[in-house]
């Protein structure tokens, strides 16, 4: 019976508890170019045996593994790291092996310390060197090592002094490690993946606006041409991504009027999310906005200013969409031969036909939907905001994103996944680069602390990158409705400093628009979704100055460009939230304090672990509020802060470093 | 390209976050016969779709799955459970499917509530019933269901009143659920295992003693025959398992003398762990103890009294072991042609040869070692205490335990895994039923709370069953050395009430032997490992009465027979540890309070969540100390406790139920 035992059974090293590893390797972790992957694992063997292990990694498609020796921490935990430098994907795993030579060398030292006779031990060591030699002599590329090892084997059999000196030499250790019988060891049974995306997938400020609305005096319907002139404003405010709601032809049938009225007037422009008309569908452009040429010129103009344009892809059709006629099999047919509109009974959304992901023609439908992304990538778009991905088959996105990224690893996908937590995280696991999240509804200090601890201090940080939006065309949270300008300021500072990625829906945000359609509702009154708005972005009470300042601070301070370095501090005041972000090397440390009460001045004692931050606890130190330029002299770990929301509800304090 | 898309991609349900699941299913969970397996999982789909799911399980070897419908908890979490009734192993997994009918029925209710016209909806429902009908008609075993479904399809197409009544009927829901297209759904991609062991694997009191020592006046060397007369004493004390150190012939070469002296005197009996002589090895019996017949008679006598005998298997050889001559290839040879003895430099253990698990003849060696267990199983032994399993190849145990259990699922393995945490847990994962653990070194209230929370409130509880030993022949902790009788009492109560399994090394324990070989050492002075001791178990100061009382309480109160029901409470006094154990149905609740200070009376207020325990917060209630029989009248959640260690350092309070 034992004759058939596979030799794996006799491998004496165990590798487990590998981190990062998402759902036992089902899903990749995410990184951006230049980031580190810190890998740890429990690696152990029986008894007193010694082992060595290494982290192995390679870019997707590469044949050879790169190897990094792992270092022991405590409690059988080992550690190593590597940096991802190329877009695409990497794989990593761990190899470990019994290291008889390391055990022997360690024991030899202990024997010598108590003066034991080691003559036999030295011969055992020579035997270990012999074994290595005879194993490697077949390989020409280690001929030099073989010569050196043969020399050491001889020395170990020489007079005691020579032998002991040889046994304890670092060179022999290095030679034996380099030529260890690694393949006689064990390799972790999973190869774990890293998806590597552009830095913009982690760090960026987004500005959403409706191109059809008017910012200019002589405008009746915005166009891409007109919008070109808005780009310098957006650039001046410091944004990195210009995000447009759907730009396609809008349906006529059952078009919604102003304020989502079920009856539209003749001059109502309809919702950009009711996609498709006789003029075309998801690959067409609403002619009221201009031509494809106008659009690409707009995109190029943005690029010249250092900004990227993000498109909104919403997979749903107006009843007038060409797909409805060409592919009725992609929609659900009712017994009365009408197509099933969207609904959430008793609510009906009759201007929208959802795709039927249960269709037996799903393969053809998926291919067509993929081609929509491919089309816009072909027009130079590399960032997509995906509308309600959670209402489409989830694995469809896994396939679609993988298909796009196989050719275009630079493409970034933002999921508008305002849904249940498990589904939101799942969409991130299966490929979305970023996600909307519960930030709009996390307003108190404890809610923000709890939620952002989950996002940044658990496994979630490995696959889920939050993009923080204090408002959207659909969400005007009551904190903004009731808190007015102070709330718009504090929520802006929170979004832009807690999140490496954040966005606002403007100009409604910088102009502090805060009237809901009805009390207790989150929708805007006279929502821009259903009508052309006229915005005066030059208004004196605009938040433009604050936004410009904060975006510059974000660009100047690398600490604000990551998420997982977020750390909260006690303030002794439930209205006062304090948190820091620091670079790994502590060369750049920012402390943000926000008064969450839009009505009253709040004060508290911020408690900092100053020694961990590299601050001398016995000397005063200067901190500078980057929002105002003011310096404060602080000392020790507890310092007083007072914030008047009607002046400025936040400090963004530079404790040390860049700026 | 999309033509080749596998249909799994189009499955719309996701199953993840399954618990229990150890290391992504690499290792089984453990249960004993009659225990429940509570399974939970995150199961979700896109959008507003409805799903149903079920837990499936089967005994190893069975063809058909048993199915239990899962119930939704909150946040996309689903729950179901099953009970394991047979020794051996079970497998479980989860199946989930989109439930269009459930969605339709739920929507119908909402439509009716607002008075929507549902005539088309009723036809859609009839279509769903038709679909089910046409799918199931091939199966004869659901002929009755088919008739009923056809009837419902007709009713749904009938007048509105009849149709609506049919649509909302529970019977139709049940029919549709029972005949759902489950195989059109998705099955979790892992089948997870449960190893089912005898109840004794979870619950038992162990008594270890050296059979060669003398408890009787006319004894010079104990024998199995003499030991038969000790069994009633052990039974009277209430123990379930009688555990003997190795019973094999003891080597002569380099035999250790008294107090581990490297030079033995002629009359020194040697350590039972120096196994093997010319009289035989691991399958032989030390003739000084008797014959195999004597041994089996002893085992049968114990069985008659309701106790099991556990043998100690220590895989190591004295230089005189027959294996050394017959299989020198199983040991490590040194360059001077001597066999490598055990060592931990600079310490040498020259009376012991370890097996060389690196030998190329490992398959033959493993087979022989397995045959040792098989031999003793053949002699009626079903419990083994395995000596230092962590110093043998770890995967060897995985194979060995699986091999034994394939034929004898009733066999229990206790690992003497006094080693690093990761290795200790790994040995449990790969098959050991129980394990020694850090209990001997966890003495303060916070240490005990922290450690037993880890053991009973994390995944560890699924695979690791602690066996709590306040002493062993190798471990006389300083708390016992310094604390004397009060410490022996409190540590006994802790072991026997925190652990469903516990053991003592007696008679040293009940006689409170507490002199170490040297200050700061944990070894006993004049250790029984190296000499024959004479014990007077009838001494008046023996802990016999306490032990007898506690073991009876353990047998009478099912709450004390599990581990994962342990719960700690605050006492306001760092010397006072309070914890409860309750049965799931709260019919049996015990509260244990232990004074950990062996010198002074300690008091505190025990804080209980009495409403969770089913106690009326507005009325006084009686609690009874089962150790003394005394009743106390308590009221509310805070009650005063005071314990004098010189009288009795513990309360074992029955709050409710059995006794």
- Strand percent estimate of chain A: 15-25%
Helicity level of chain A:
25-40%
Oligomer: homodimer
Specify which chain pair forms the largest interface: A-B, 63 and 63 residues
Number of helices of chain A: 16
Strand order of the largest sheet of chain A: 20-19-18-13-12-11-22-21
Unreliable residue runs of chain A? none
Largest sheet of chain A: 8 strands, parallel
The secondary-structure class of chain A comes to alpha/beta
The chain-level mean pLDDT of chain A equals 96
General shape of chain A: globular
Radius of gyration of chain A: 31 Å
User: Using DSSP, what is the number of strands of chain A?
Assistant: 30
Ends distance of chain A: 71 Å
Q: Which key terms come to mind for this protein?
A:
homodimer; 659 residues; alpha/beta; 8-stranded parallel sheet; 6-stranded mixed sheet; 30 strands; 28% helix; 23% strand
Brief characterization of the structure:
Chain A is of the alpha/beta class and 659 residues long. An eight-stranded parallel sheet of chain A has the order 20-19-18-13-12-11-22-21.
Helices, strands, pairings?
Two copies of one chain form a homodimer.
Chain A: E1 13-19, E2 29-32, E3 36-45, E4 51-59, E5 66-69, E6 71-72, E7 77-83, E8 88-98, H1 100-113, H2 119-136, H3 143-156, H4 160-167, H5 170-178, E9 186-187, E10 192-197, E11 204-208, H6 224-228, H7 231-237, E12 241-244, H8 292-304, E13 308-313, E14 316-317, H9 322-326, E15 342-344, E16 347-349, E17 353-354, H10 362-378, E18 383-386, H11 394-407, E19 412-415, H12 421-429, E20 434-435, H13 445-457, H14 460-463, E21 467-468, H15 478-498, E22 501-505, H16 544-556, E23 566-569, E24 576-582, E25 588-595, E26 602-607, E27 621-625, E28 631-634, E29 638-643, E30 650-657
Parallel strand pairs in A: 2-10, 11-12, 11-22, 12-13, 13-18, 18-19, 19-20, 21-22
Antiparallel strand pairs in A: 1-3, 3-7, 4-5, 4-8, 6-7, 8-9, 8-10, 14-17, 15-16, 23-24, 24-25, 25-30, 26-29, 27-28, 27-30
Helix pairs in contact in A: 1-2, 2-3, 3-4, 10-11, 15-16
